[in-house]
Write a structure and sequence with these properties.
Layout: E1 2-5, E2 12-15, H1 23-42, H2 48-55, H3 59-67, H4 99-122
Antiparallel strand pairs: 1-2
Helix pairs in contact: 1-2
């Protein structure tokens, strides 16, 4: 149990789990999630702007719910309203990158880690 600052509101809170947001923000997220889901069940195919205005949930929050994988809007929203891969721009149903970009980023990260590891082995050891 440790004291942390909420990544959203910056308030200090006692961290009991891996959550990086305080209980108040977590509760707000849950209310937003319930509102968005209820609206989409009754009005499938609405635009992102309409979902946001009808539920009172900001568009950025709706998109965050999609990125977190809590809401899948692929079949519910218009194609122009879907979140985009941050690397190539293709429409995605959740997360920050499409599968192919995520795989390429993973491979690039692994190659960089391997290169750093190799470089650290080549450095001469400095003894005392």
């Amino acid at each position: 149990m440790s004291l942390s600052n909420c990544t959203r509101c910056q308030r200090a809170f006692r961290r009991l789990t891996d959550a990086k947001i305080c209980p108040a923000c977590l509760e707000g997220d849950e209310r937003a999630y319930q509102s968005v889901i209820a609206w989409l069940q009754q009005h499938p195919g609405d635009s992102l702007q309409r979902v946001a205005s009808a539920t009172g949930v900001a568009e950025t929050v709706v998109l965050r719910l999609v990125r977190e994988g809590r809401v899948s809007l692929l079949e519910l929203l218009q194609p122009e309203d879907l979140p985009r891969c941050r690397r190539c721009g293709v429409a995605i149903s959740g997360g920050m990158a499409c599968r192919s970009c995520a795989q390429m980023l993973g491979e690039e990260l692994q190659a960089s880690a391997d290169a750093l590891r190799e470089a650290s082995w080549r450095k001469p050891w400095r003894g005392s």
